[in-house]
Structure formats: C-alpha cells, structure tokens
C-alpha cells in the first residue's frame, strides 16, 4: 500500500509505447504515478492499476507543462522522478527534410524535455533530492540514415543532460539518459516521412525508411523489460548516467566508442599540435 513516503514518478507520453509500459510497471510496483498524455482518454485504464494521477500534457506548451507540474505537486506534494519520454520520429534524408517537420521534431523532442526539466527543478532543488530520466536513443550517440534530424534532437538532449548533471549533482539531483535500440513500440509506424524523396538517396535513406517500416512488430526490444530496467537503474544505490537498452544499442554504442578511440589515436599528434608551443 502506498504511504506518504512512496516515491512519485511523473512520466510523459503515456498513451503508447515506452511511456505506457513505464507507467504501468511503476503502478504495478506500488509507486505513485503521474501519467500524462495529450489525450487522457487513452490513459483511463492506468488509473485502475494503482495510485495514478492522470493529467493532460502537451510538452510543446509552456502553460500546459506548468499546469501539469503544479497539479502533480499539489496532489502528491512533490515529484521524485521525472521521466521525459514524450517524443516523435521523422524519416527523411537531411536534404529531403521539411523545415516544418524539423521544427516540430525539436519542439517536442528537445524543447519539450527542457520545458519539463525547468518546471520540476525548483521543487527538486528545494528538497535537495530528485531524479531526471531523459529517454534519448542509441541515435543520440551515433547517427543513422533517414533519421538525421531525429538523431540531432537526441544528441541535443544528451549534451543538455551532461551539462545539467554538472549543475545539479551537488544539489542531490541525479540525471540519467536512457538510450534504447529497436523496441517493439509504435514509434516507427507512427513516424512521419518525407513526401519529396530524392532518387540519389534511395540506397541509403530510402532503404533505411523501408527497413524501419518493415521492422514494426518484429523489433527485438521488449518495452515491459525496458520499464523494469529503468526502475532498477533509477533506484540503484549508484544510478548510472547512461543506460543502454537492448543488444542493438549496447553493441552499436560500444562499436562507436572503439571507432572514436581509434580515430582519436590516429590523429593525436595533429590534435595536440594545435596549441601554442610550450616554452622550456
């Protein structure tokens, strides 16, 4: 049974995918959960699983974010863990990408995270306690064809999170990036695509788009297991700053590290030679 000391988690984007799985898992484990989505009618069943506060939230709206955080803190007294899960995808080569689609990607995937973080930080600072979990992607660590601007938003959240960690760790607030690979959610199926493909990119971005769409329903990652992994990491005595999820993400990220290490070493003398010469 919940007590006043039971942690409160606020999860964004709970209508489908990771958000729904995370909220459902947390409620099943007895946590108090603020489950949010733009359309709350899709969340009614979550209220039956435990102590859930269902709230409308549009992460692209300053007023919506402020109101959701206000109501959550008014209802539960505080927020212990913020999970920034809300996000969208877009499939297009860089040159094919529509400016309006790019702007929307950044407004949801990056600025939405920033809005939520800035809204919960005053309460967390006051208590000198809290966790901020930002779901990025393995695409926040390395780029892929057809999702260049999506990856750019996730790279942005990674850099934002690194800086945030350096600012709030001494205040008792932990920041974690979660980097999933291919999981069986509706992300690919619900992502918009370019309407003006360019033939020269068909073998790269075009093939990638076809592969993403063909993968729907067959991705190896299990969202329920991901939700459990996130809970384990957040509640660990020493939580990680980065949590890779799935074999695809782990293998790709380690390969990227090896590639960077090799290239840095090859060009070390050139890199170090860019400083003013030292004097004896």
UniProtKB/TrEMBL annotation:
Keyword annotations: Oxidoreductase
Record-linked Gene3D superfamilies: NAD(P)-binding Rossmann-like Domain
InterPro entries linked: NAD(P)-bd_dom_sf (IPR036291), Sc_DH/Rdtase_CS (IPR020904), SDR_fam (IPR002347), SDR_oxidoreductase (IPR051911)
SUPFAM superfamilies the record matches: NAD(P)-binding Rossmann-fold domains
Coiled-coil intervals: none
PROSITE patterns assigned to the protein according to its UniProt record, in alphabetical order: ADH_SHORT
Keyword Oxidoreductase appears in the UniProt entry: yes
Molecular-function GO term, any one: oxidoreductase activity
Origin: domain of life: Bacteria
Keyword set includes Ligase: no
Family membership noted in the UniProt record: Belongs to the short-chain dehydrogenases/reductases (SDR) family.
Record's protein name: NADP-dependent 3-hydroxy acid dehydrogenase YdfG
Species assigned in the record: Streptomyces melanosporofaciens
């Amino acid at each position: 049974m919940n007590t006043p000391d039971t942690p409160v988690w606020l999860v964004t984007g709970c209508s489908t995918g990771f958000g729904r799985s995370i909220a459902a898992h947390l409620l099943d484990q007895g946590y108090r959960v603020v489950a949010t989505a733009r359309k709350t009618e899709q969340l009614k069943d979550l209220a039956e699983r435990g102590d859930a506060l269902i709230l409308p939230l549009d992460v692209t709206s300053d007023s919506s974010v402020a109101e959701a955080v206000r109501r959550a803190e008014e209802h539960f007294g505080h927020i212990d863990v913020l999970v920034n899960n809300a996000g969208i995808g877009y499939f297009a080569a860089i040159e094919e990408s529509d400016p309006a689609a790019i702007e929307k990607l950044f407004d949801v995937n990056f600025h939405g995270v920033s809005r939520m973080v800035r809204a919960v930080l005053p309460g967390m600072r006051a208590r000198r306690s809290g966790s901020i979990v930002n779901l990025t992607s393995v695409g926040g660590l390395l780029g892929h064809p057809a999702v260049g601007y999506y990856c750019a938003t996730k790279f942005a959240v990674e850099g934002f999170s690194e800086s945030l960690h350096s600012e709030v760790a001494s205040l008792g607030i932990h920041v974690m990036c979660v980097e999933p690979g291919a999981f069986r959610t509706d992300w690919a199926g619900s992502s918009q695509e370019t309407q003006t493909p360019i033939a020269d990119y068909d073998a790269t971005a075009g093939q990638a788009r076809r592969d993403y769409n063909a993968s729907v329903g067959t991705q190896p990652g299990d969202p329920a297991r991901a939700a459990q992994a996130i809970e384990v990491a957040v509640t660990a005595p020493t939580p990680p700053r980065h949590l890779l999820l799935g074999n695809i993400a782990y293998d790709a990220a380690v390969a990227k590290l090896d590639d960077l290490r090799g290239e840095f070493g090859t060009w070390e003398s050139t890199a170090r030679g860019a400083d003013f010469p030292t004097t004896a």
